[in-house]
Amino acid sequence: MPSTARRTHYWVTFAVLAVSVASYTLMQSLTIPVLSELETEFNTDQNTVTWLLTGYLLSASIFTPIMGRLGDAYGKQRLLVISLAALAIGSLAAALAPTIGLLIAARVLQGVGGGVLPLAFGIIRDEFPREKIGGAVSIVSSLLAVGFGAGIVIAGPLSSALSYHWLFWLPFIVTAVAAVVAAVLVPESPVRTPGRIAIVPAILLSSWLVALLLSLSQAPQWGWGDAKTIGLLIAAAVLAVAWVRVELVVDVPLIDMKMMRLPGVWTTNLVALLLGVGMYASFGFIPQFNQTPSSAGYGFGSTITESGMILLPSAIMSFLTGLVAAPIARRIGPKTVVVFGSVLAAVGMFMMAAFHAEPWQVAVSNAITGTGIGLAFACLAGLIVAAVTPEQTGVASGMNANIRTIGGSIGTAVMASIVTAHFLPSGFPKEVGYTAGFVVLGVALLAAAAAGLAIPSMSEKAIEDKLEQERIDRELAVMSA
């Protein structure tokens, strides 16, 4: 390992990475509970205000794998600082935005911060002792679920006590400090992937992601049979095929297709896709269910704050499972943890479909789902890291996070179509729409468990030994150079 004189203790590095990932994941959901408030504040319509989510989602989906690949090539610490700076500047711009258009643009800039996810996993792999990598990756991975849930929980109290502006001021302060600390304390990665970044694959990747996610996010409003929806889906398919073909022939691919075909990679990505379907859609629609007036025959008429508190057990359990997932994986294997977690999450979702007459029932079912998703997420990143070479950690982790986001878009679009299929005279969706939607999400989580069975078996000790050998090889290479 190069010059150890300036290398920060790995727990300091971990603290910076945890804050960075938590800040990014919070920004995914902080605006969801206050969309109606922002609609009124900016005197706009629902279709326009939803672009605060769509714009962020599109940007993050594009930049997460690209920033991971750039980190592999030019230095993970350098790109981490850039990602945090983009998140901080975007948050500042959002806090000061005088119009809805500028607020949407600020959210697009925030999406560049998605690079913190793959970069954090890569830095952990490079800097941590082998016996500490599994636990660190598990905790950071669990923050993906925790942060998303926590954003929904704290948005209401923060907006009510201060104003919606603090949904952006707070992330600005935290990420700006994190960027400075990362620049000073986080050591640069000794692992690089040589070669220039191919521009055409990056353009094609961005294009098919935009076409796919735009069609999925707008399909509930446009209709699945609308010409725009169908046209974008066809364009996404054509561009995706073109992207794969180009990646196969360029000298230095943006995403190595041979890597994507590895059994440990494609199976883990499939699980991530299906878990994304269940997690993002449930967090997006359960608050709406809670806030529906009881006069509709369901719901509790909850305020934004009350609705968030009902989801608090899910966020807590996701975090706690992140702390214990690594020790459990050492005993029974990470694959088993992923399968068990997915099944447990499905059980919670089916409970939500069957029992939702009281707030405590919703809280319990969500706590079970959060426990399962927390366990599964905590092991997915470690499986990806172990399946690829050190030089591919950033891009492989970025694609895994990106595929999870795509799953969230699919789940949200399908859930929206089911929930809004039938309305009551009062204008609220019928209860049967929510019930059917939660059943569909439960089936997706069960499918994630089935896909998890295809993940190649590998004990946690075998993963640690593989990572330790790679660290020794890197040190020998540096010494010989």
UniProtKB/TrEMBL annotation:
Protein name, UniProt field: MFS transporter
- UniProt subcellular location: Cell membrane
GO MF annotations, alphabetized: transmembrane transporter activity
Entry's transmembrane regions: 12-36, 48-67, 79-98, 104-124, 136-158, 164-186, 198-217, 229-250, 270-289, 309-329, 336-355, 367-389, 401-424, 436-456
- Keyword Transport in the entry? The reply is yes
| UniProt source species | Aeromicrobium endophyticum
In the UniProt record, which is one GO cellular component term?
plasma membrane
Keyword Transmembrane included in the entry's annotation: yes
Q: Which UniProt keywords apply?
A: Membrane, Transmembrane, Transmembrane helix, Transport
Q: Which Pfam families match?
A: MFS_1
Specify the Major facilitator superfamily (MFS) profile domain's residue ranges: 13-459
| UniProt cross-references to InterPro entries, sorted A to Z | MFS, MFS_dom, MFS_trans_sf, Tet-R_TetA/multi-R_MdtG-like
Tell me how this protein sits in the membrane. Multi-pass membrane protein
Family matches, as SUPFAM superfamilies: MFS general substrate transporter (SSF103473)
